[in-house]
Amino acid sequence: MRSVTIFVLLCLSFLTACSSTGGKDDKKNWAAEDYFKEAKEELDGGNYERAIKLFEGLGARFPFGKVAQQSQLEIAYAYYKQAEVTESVAAADRFIKQYPTHENLDYAFYLKGLANFRDDKGFLGILNSTDLSERDPKAARESFDAFKELVTRFPASRYAEDSNKRMNYLVNSLALNEIHVARYYLKRGAPLAAANRAQQALVRYPQAPALEEALGIMISAYDSLGMADLRDDAKKVLQKNFPQSVYMAGYTEANKAWWKFW
Question: Which of 216, 215, 133, 119 is nearest to 170 (CA)?
Answer without folding.
Answer: 119
